[in-house]
Amino acid sequence: MLPFGIWLTIVLGLQYSLIFICCAVLLKLPTKRFAQLFDSLFGFKIQNDDDHIIIINVCGDNFELSKKLTSRIPFALVLSMCLMVIVVVFIDGCILSMRFMYSNELCSENTPYCYLFKTRLSWYHSFHNLVCQPNESVVSSNISADHVLCYGFIVSNQTTIDIINQLGICSGILAIVETAYPLTYRFGHHPIGMICLVCLNCGILIAEVIFTIIHFQISYMTFILMNLMAFLITTIIYLQYKKRKMRKSRLLISTLNLNQF
Predict the structure, then answer these.
(1) Membrane-spanning regions, if any (predicted)?
(2) pTM for the whole thing?
C-alpha cells in the first residue's frame, strides 16, 4: 500500500497530465479541424472556410480561431476538461473506486485500502494506513481517527453490463454539458446573468473549500463535477469579457473614424 502523499500525487498528477496532454494535442490541430471538433460537440457553427483563421459563432457571438494560443486556449481547455472528467468518471466506476468514510462506518470489499486522518484540518496528512476487512469497523477501538479515505481496484468485479452502464453515465454527463454550456453562455449575455454566473462560480468554489475542510461526506466524483462546472462557468465569463472588450474596441475605432471625417 502506497504512502498517502505518493498516492495523492499519482492520482492528481494523472488527472492534470491528462488535461495537459489533451490541451497540447488540441492546440497542435489544424485550425479548421479544431473548429470542426468544437462545432461537433457544442454546435457552434463555423462562419467561414479559411484554413488559417476561422470565425466560429458562439451563440450569436463571433470569435476568431487561429494558430495563436490566446484564441485557442479557452476552447482547448473546455474540451480537455470535459474529456478528463469523462475518463475519471469511467475509471472511478470501473477500475479504481474511492470513497470518503467516517470512522464508525463498516469496511467495503470494494475499497479495502484506507488512509486515516486525525482531524478535519489534516486531510493532506494521513497518520495511519490499513487494509480494511469487509464488514468490520473501518477504525478499530484503539485508534482515534476523525475520517477515512478508502480506495480499491474494482476492475475484476466488473461485468459487461457494468461497463455499459458506466459508459452511459459518461455519455449522459457529456450530453448535459453539450446542452448546458450554450444555454449558460446565452444567460451570460445579460448583465444580471453575468452577475449570477460570477456569484454561482464563487459559491461553488467556497462550497468546495468548506466541504474539504469539514470533510462533508460526498463522493470524489461530486468534487470532480463541481470542478467541471466551475471551470466551464469561468471560461464563459472569460469569453463574455472578451466579447465586451472586442465590442468596445470596435466602437472606439468607429468613433475615431467618424472624428477624422
Answers:
(1) 6-27, 75-102, 163-183, 195-214, 220-241
(2) 0.78
